[in-house]
Amino acid sequence: MRSDERRALVLEAATRVFGERGYHGATTDAVAREAGVSQPYVVRMFGGKEAMFLAVLDRAIDRILGAFEADIVALEAEGRAGDEDAVSACLGRSYVDLLGDRGLLLSLMQAFMLGSEPVVGRHAREGFRRVYAYLRERVGLDPDAAQDFLSRGMLLNTVVGLRMVDDYESDENVHELLDELLPTKIDVLLALRGDAT
Amino acid sequence: MRSDERRALVLEAATRVFGERGYHGATTDAVAREAGVSQPYVVRMFGGKEAMFLAVLDRAIDRILGAFEADIVALEAEGRAGDEDAVSACLGRSYVDLLGDRGLLLSLMQAFMLGSEPVVGRHAREGFRRVYAYLRERVGLDPDAAQDFLSRGMLLNTVVGLRMVDDYESDENVHELLDELLPTKIDVLLALRGDAT
DNA sequence: GATAGTTGTAATCGGATGATTACAAGACGG
DNA sequence: CCGTCTTGTAATCATCCGATTACAACTATC
C-alpha cells in the first residue's frame, strides 16, 4: 500500500476514535488498532497525539467546506446563487449527508469543547471562523441567516451524537423533533441506527 | 464540614473536570484534587466514575430546568405565560446566565456526544428528552419554536466551549456573530474571558 | 466508656498510555 | 552488490488510571 493511502486510512481511524472518546480519552493505540498498524507508527506519522488531532480537525473542516463549495458551484451554474433560501436549503442537505460520517461530526464537536487548550483551542476557533467566514463571504448569507444555519447544524450534531434516532419510533417527542429538524432527510439519520461507526 | 456539603463540592469539581476533559479523559484523581479530597474518597462516594458522571449530568439538567421553572412561575404571575415570544426570550436570558458556569454546559455537551455508550448514552438521551418535553408541555412552545430554542442553545454552547469571546475584539466576524447571537447579554460572555473555570 | 457507624486517607495493584529506541524488510540509484 | 531512504514493527520505559484494601479519626448512642 502506498504511503499516502495508509496515512488517509490512519486519519479516518483517528477521526472515529477521537469522535467517540474525545481528545483526552482517545489513545494512539486505539487509533493504531483501528487502522491495522502499529502504535509507534501512528505516533511517528503525525509527530504525536496533538498533531494528529489537528490533522483530523483540518480534514473535517476541509470536507465540509468542500461539500459546500461543490453546492455553490452547482448553484452558480444554475443561476440560483442569489436565492438565499435555496442556497441555505441546498447546503443544509449537503450537511445532513455529511452526518453519515459519525466520526467526522463528533470529532468536530469534540474540538469545539477544547477552547481552553492553548494549541488545539486556537486551531478549533480558527476552523469555526473559517466556516462562518465562508458562509458570510462566499455563500453570501447575512448574519442572521448564517447564525440560523450554524444553529441548526449544531442541533443536528447533538442529535447525532446522542444517537437520538434510536428512539425515533419509541418516543413521540423524539419523532416530532426529528421530523421537524429533517423534513426531507430523515432516512439519512435512520440509516445510522445500530451503526457502530 | 457536613457530608452533603462535601458531596456538593465534589460534584461541582467533577462538573468542571468532566467538562474540560470529557468523560473518558477525566480522572477521578483530578476531581479529587480539584475538590481537595482524596481519590479513593470520590470513587467510593459515587461508586465509580460512571455513576459520578451520571450524577453530574442529572444535576446539570436539574439546574437548567429549575431556572426555566422559576421563569415560568414568574411569567404566570404576570399573566404573560401565553406570549410565546416573551417566554422564549425570558428562558433564553436564563440560559445565557447559566453559561457563566462553563463546566455545567461543557459537561452537558460531553454527555451529548456519548450516544454510543450503553449506560451513559441512554441517560443522556433521557436528559435531552426531558428538556424537550419540558419546552413543549410545560412551557407550551410549538415544535418549531422548541427546535429553534434548542438550536440557539447548542450554538451558544459551542461558542462557549470554543472560548470564542477571546476573539471578540480581534476578529470582525466573531464580533458580528456574538452580537447577533446575544443581542442584550454579550457582557455575560465577555465576563468569561480568561476565566479558567 | 465501650460499641458501632460515619468520614476520610495512605498504600498499593493490575493494567493502560504516549513516546522512544532499536531494529527488520524492502526499494532504488550508482 | 552496496549504501541509504522509506516503511513498518517489537520491545520497553516512565507515568498515570480506576479501584480495592486496610486503617485512622471522629461522633453518637447506650
Features:
homodimer, 197 residues, mainly alpha, Tetracycline Repressor, domain 2, globular, DNA-binding
Question: How would you describe the overall organization of this protein?
Answer:
The structure is a homodimer of 197-residue chains. The relative contact order of chain A is 0.11. The longest helix of chain A is centred in the N-terminal third of the chain and has 30 residues, at 49-78. The first copy, chain A, has one domain (3-190): Orthogonal Bundle (Tetracycline Repressor, domain 2), CATH 1.10.357.10. In chain A, 77% of the residues lie in helices and 0% in strands. The model of chain A has no long low-confidence stretch (mean pLDDT 94). The radius of gyration of chain A is 18 Å and the shape is globular. Chain A has 197 residues and is mainly α. Chain A contains ten helices and no strands. The interface between A and B is large, with 51 and 51 residues.
Secondary-structure element series of chain A: HHHHHHHHHH
Number of strands of chain A: 0
CATH superfamily of chain A: Tetracycline Repressor, domain 2
- Taking pLDDT < 50 over at least 5 consecutive residues as the criterion, the unreliable ranges of chain A are none
End-to-end Cα distance of chain A: 23 Å
Largest sheet of chain A: none
Mean pLDDT of chain A: 94
Oligomer, anyone?
homodimer
* Structural category of chain A: mainly alpha
Helix content of chain A: over 70%
Could you tell me which chain pair has the largest interface and how many residues each side has?
Answer: A-B, 51 and 51 residues
Number of helices of chain A: 10
Radius of gyration of chain A, in Å, reads 18 Å
Count of folded domains of chain A: 1
Under the CATH scheme, the architecture of chain A is: Orthogonal Bundle
If you consult CATH, what is the topology of chain A? Answer: Tetracycline Repressor, domain 2
Q: Beta-strand percentage of chain A?
A: under 5%
